Amino acid sequence: MSFMQIKDLCVHYPIRGGFFNTVVDQVYAVDGVNMEFEKGKTYGLVGESGSGKSTTGKAIIGLEKITSGSIIYEGKDVTNQRRERTSAYNRDIQMIFQDANSSLNPRKRVKDIIAEPIRNFLKLSDQEENKRINELLAIVGMPEDAKYKYPHEFSGGQKQRIGIARAVACNPKLIIADEPVSALDLSVQAQVLNFMKDIQEEFGLSYLFISHDLGVVKHMCDHISIMYKGRFVETGRREDIYQDPQHIYTQRLLSAIPNIEPATRIERNKERQGVEARYQAEQHKYYDENGKVYALEKISDTHLVAVNINEKGGK
Amino acid sequence: MANIENLLTIKNLHTSFRIKDTYYDAVENISINLNKNEILAIVGESGCGKSTLATSIVGLHDPINTKITGEILYKDLNLAAISESKFNDVRGNDIGMIFQDPLSALNPLVRIGEQISESLVYHTKFTKEQRKERVIELLNQVGIPNPERVVRQFPHQLSGGMRQRVMIAIAIACKPAIIVADEPTTALDVTIQAQILDLLKELQAETKSGIILITHDLGVVAEIADRVAVMYAGQVIEEAPVEELFNNPKHPYTRSLLNSIPQMNSENEKLQVIQGLVPSLKNLPREGCRFSSRVPWLDANTHEVNPVLHEVSPGHFVRCTCWKHFDFESAEGGN
Ligand SMILES: Nc1ncnc2c1ncn2[C@@H]1O[C@H](COP(=O)(O)OP(=O)(O)OP(=O)(O)O)[C@@H](O)[C@H]1O
Ligand SMILES: Nc1ncnc2c1ncn2[C@@H]1O[C@H](COP(=O)(O)OP(=O)(O)OP(=O)(O)O)[C@@H](O)[C@H]1O
Ligand SMILES: [Mg+2]
Ligand SMILES: [Mg+2]
């Protein structure tokens, strides 16, 4: 059973212009997205740059206005309560930002950064708070004396861990992680990913994991959605997406992943050129005359694809 | 195999930066060569000296705080010791560079079209019309849509990925014999990345150039490199033909890097990795095996006193002897 449902989420940005500064156009950054989250699971969100991934995450957490659609959390419609500072929703849903640098206040000590959600949501004595901060630092594998330092005294990977410590401070149910490792070196990335899995196991957390690295997504996610121009082109279990990709855009993405087997590179390159040619030739099957992605159709209990119903059959 | 023709030879290169009054080696005694029609990949973690090696080759370091010793031999020149004016002829014409950070490498006040045609003015006898044509052709090659519009734009009006492609267009404008590419695709998504890698390959097939490709993405290395050098703390610690490196890695650091790639492991499994970071320049160890502090559970006498590169199979070199005693099982116990 899912504890949270996102229904037909839309975030449109008006573009103003002209003499009267009227709305001349709309950017359909998120345009009809449905999702649900179950306990202890990781949901991947991948897609081209500018496809609306961050906007989706920010809309869920309440940093972006929702144009239409609703968010149901534990049976209650919370669409309009996402911004209430002390609501349960705000405590239970946390976010790790793409850019650790700009999401940590440079003038605050690590101690105060991590304590922020604790002070908002838990009534702890100074002593208890201190104890909790030490616990959190231990969880993210950092020494206790880190708490008296400022963000600039840490490396990228360490800053990312401070962001994680803050996100997990109040035992959230869902963490929205926007490109949490894309700025990190391989070995630091591995350390952070291992750690995210550890705390998931320990606390039964769920993640919405936003990334453009399909290798990382495969490693981390149970369920994956592929986004293109504000809409999902395909969504399914990991196996559905990686073993049986249906939408041409998914196939295109998968065929472009660099593979660490030098021996197969020529073969894979041919395959990729083939997908690329099909992508050019068969666009009409996958996008309507305005280039918009079709509605999702169920092809199995877990696997949905956006195809033109009239063209079905011809894959 | 076709006959191998040497293009660039680096011998005992040291590049050091001054911090207060002391010079610290960021590149420490590197000797490596680049052949014609070859892609040599340089990999390693942030701070290990990859970009320093690149800027040494193209002569673009800050001359006041940088000291370079050793030789970088190209044709009959030692690039480590020639004058700036002489280097200006070589750069662009013979050696093209793609920078890690395109925003700081492009002039914010100059239109894209002019920035690309600049080196054509300097290094070719093209007429104005020919230059215009070539600029559009280059932008098409790097996959920029609507190049006629883009030539009139300024860098800040382009997305990160587009700026990166403009940098690449500049670097390849004069079809240089050597291309030094520092993280050329890191800012791009996989479909554009694939397109750029194809472009570099095509270009190479046409001009038989040698490419030094710096990256920390081992997937990219496996896609296009012929040979790989792995750097750690300013030194090359392993060097091998690409298939050999991926199939038969030796040095603990190389193996740790390969093990940190999620897609190689089966899902849900833990990524095996050696904890810790490359130390900062001032704190780099200057003696013994530079990697020993990351593998403290290995006995001191498994390391060489002065670790050197050993050829373990043809063309495959590994520094130190500690790799013979290393495995990840004990890594678990050691942490
Ligand atoms: N405040 C805004 N006003 C107008 N358009 C915006 C605004 N914020 C985002 N957009 C547009 O909405 C679209 C989606 O942006 P978003 O940041 O969600 O993309 P993304 O998928 O996270 O991309 P990336 O992978 O590059 O982070 C883009 O076309 C972007 O230009
Ligand atoms: N101009 C400089 N003055 C002093 N130290 C420098 C200078 N440039 C680089 N360094 C230091 O030299 C070392 C090597 O830096 P370099 O930029 O070559 O690393 P890199 O391998 O390219 O890393 P990255 O993957 O992060 O780009 C680092 O410790 C860096 O801090
Ligand atoms: Mg984003
Ligand atoms: Mg660099």
UniProtKB/TrEMBL annotation, chain A:
Pfam families attached to this UniProt entry: ABC_tran, oligo_HPY
Gene3D superfamilies: P-loop containing nucleotide triphosphate hydrolases
PROSITE patterns, A to Z: ABC_TRANSPORTER_1 (PS00211), ABC_TRANSPORTER_2 (PS50893)
Annotated SMART domains: AAA
Gene Ontology molecular function, alphabetical: ATP binding
UniProt key word Plastid: no
Name of the protein described by the UniProt record: ABC transporter ATP-binding protein
UniProtKB/TrEMBL annotation, chain B:
Residue intervals of the ABC transporter domain: 8-258
PROSITE patterns named among the record's database cross-references: ABC_TRANSPORTER_1 (PS00211), ABC_TRANSPORTER_2 (PS50893)
Gene3D superfamilies xrefs: P-loop containing nucleotide triphosphate hydrolases (3.40.50.300)
Keyword Cell membrane appears in the UniProt entry: yes
Location in the cell: Cell membrane
Family from the record: Belongs to the ABC transporter superfamily.
Name listed for the protein in its UniProt record: ABC transporter ATP-binding protein
Organism: Viridibacillus soli
